[in-house]
């Protein structure tokens, strides 16, 4: 009753590989781009009409199609709600995490928006995987690492101090030693945000341990760039 059946059938048929070859090679990408709007119109109660189409698009051989879905998966999660997201979107999200950098950047740019929609136990499963974002297909793709640091500043609020210390601290320290100054600078802000997280949650021991680690790693560094990093961290703080 929401969308005329012939119109919906026409939309769903856009994922047919034969159409991509004979009608328009970009047709699957257009289909992927409009999918959140179609899902919103149909409502979560009719998600079953789109589920197979979404999974087909998520495994499309064209990375541009997968990239389009990666950039909008957080919007689809809001439309579907936590239960459907956990059942149907999390597996797709996990696949995008292991995809090409061109696809991974889509989920990375909205990492916080997606993770905050998950239940705490499901969200915790991603702590270890976040470290994989430090490694990229092309090491010169510094904006990827910059985006990671920027997202982690937001993601801090989703985890407890112990998880931040055990997992996110290592990523922050790695990014602070990046070859690109822009990445280092945003990472200094991340380090300070981590310290603020510890002391705001009365995790003083963790905060002190982290400060001592920063002193050893940067303040007493044999290279001037390390000592400069310590000065910048103090400046940001």
TrEMBL record:
Record InterPro entries: ARM-like (IPR011989), ARM-type_fold (IPR016024), PP2A_Regulatory_Subunit_A (IPR051023)
GO annotation, cellular component aspect: cytoplasm
Highest taxon listed in the record's lineage: Eukaryota
Gene Ontology MF terms: protein phosphatase regulator activity
Keywords noted in UniProt: Repeat
Protein name: PP4R1 phosphatase
Organism of provenance: Toxostoma redivivum
């Amino acid at each position: 009753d929401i969308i005329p059946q012939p119109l919906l059938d026409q939309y769903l048929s856009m994922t047919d590989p034969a159409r991509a070859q004979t009608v328009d090679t970009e047709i699957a990408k257009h289909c992927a781009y409009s999918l959140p709007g179609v899902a919103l119109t149909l409502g979560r109660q009719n998600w079953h009409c789109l589920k197979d189409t979404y999974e087909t698009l998520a495994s499309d051989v064209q990375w541009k199609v997968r990239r389009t879905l990666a950039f909008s998966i957080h919007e689809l999660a809001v439309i579907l709600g936590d239960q459907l997201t956990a059942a149907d979107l999390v597996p797709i999200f996990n696949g995008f995490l292991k995809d090409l950098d061109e696809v991974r950047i889509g989920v990375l740019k909205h990492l916080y928006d997606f993770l905050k929609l998950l239940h705490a136990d499901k969200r915790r499963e991603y702590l270890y995987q976040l470290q994989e974002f430090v490694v990229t297909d092309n090491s010169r793709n510094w904006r990827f690492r910059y985006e990671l640091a920027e997202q982690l500043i937001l993601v801090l609020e989703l985890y407890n101090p112990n998880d931040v210390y055990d997992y996110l601290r290592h990523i922050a320290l790695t990014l602070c030693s990046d070859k690109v100054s822009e990445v280092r600078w945003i990472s200094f802000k991340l380090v300070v945000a981590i310290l603020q997280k510890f002391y705001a949650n009365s995790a003083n021991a963790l905060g002190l341990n982290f400060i001592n680690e920063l002193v050893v790693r940067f303040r007493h560094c044999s290279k001037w760039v390390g000592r400069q990093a310590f000065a910048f961290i103090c400046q940001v703080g």
